[in-house]
Structure formats: C-alpha cells, structure tokens
Amino acid sequence: GEMVEKLHELAGGEVAALLVNPGAWTHYSYAIRDALELVRAPLAEVHLSDIERREPWRRRSVVADLAVVRVSGRGVDGYREAVAALARLVREGRGA
Description:
It is a single chain. 35% of the residues lie in helices and 12% in strands. By secondary structure, it is an alpha/beta fold. It starts with a helix and ends in a 5-residue tail after the last helix. It has a single domain, classed as Rossmann fold (3-Layer(aba) Sandwich). The relative contact order is 0.21. The chain is built from 3 helices and 3 strands, in the order H-E-H-E-E-H. The longest helix has 15 residues, at 77-91. It has helices spanning 2-11, 30-38, 77-91; strands spanning 18-20, 43-47, 69-72. The protein is globular and about 35 Å long.
C-alpha cells in the first residue's frame, strides 16, 4: 500500500535516517520489511508499548534485524529517544 510506495520513493533518494513505528505490520509485513531494506539509511524501530511484554505472537518483529536503534515501551518519549540516537549515529557517520 501507501507505506511501501513511500518507502520505495525514499529508496531512490538521499535519506540521512529513518524512524518507523510499524504498528501491527511489525509481526507479519514482509512487504514493508523488504521496502525498508531498500532505504540505505540508519533505521530506528519504535513501539509505544513494550512488545516483549505482550502476547507471544506480538513479540516477533520482522524488521528488527534492519534496525540500528530499537525503542519499545517508552510511549511518546520513545520517539525522542530514537531521534536522538539516530542523530548521534548520523553525526558520527555511522548507521546503515
């Protein structure tokens, strides 16, 4: 859908870093995973809730191995934490 299309657009350009909350797609969307893999930029995966403390089937993330930053269970603060970590990686020239 739209998310995959947008990621494909980003894959063709210059992206310093990417933050994503895959929501329900976390557990099964290989289309989004494949599209994220095409974007050559450090990736942060953010979840408002702690997915490790949820039902067993919700603990698996198909994008986890692509992420250089993972923040889970920190609510809205998780976004700030992930942005700060990505900014640090970009400044240091590290990441994807």
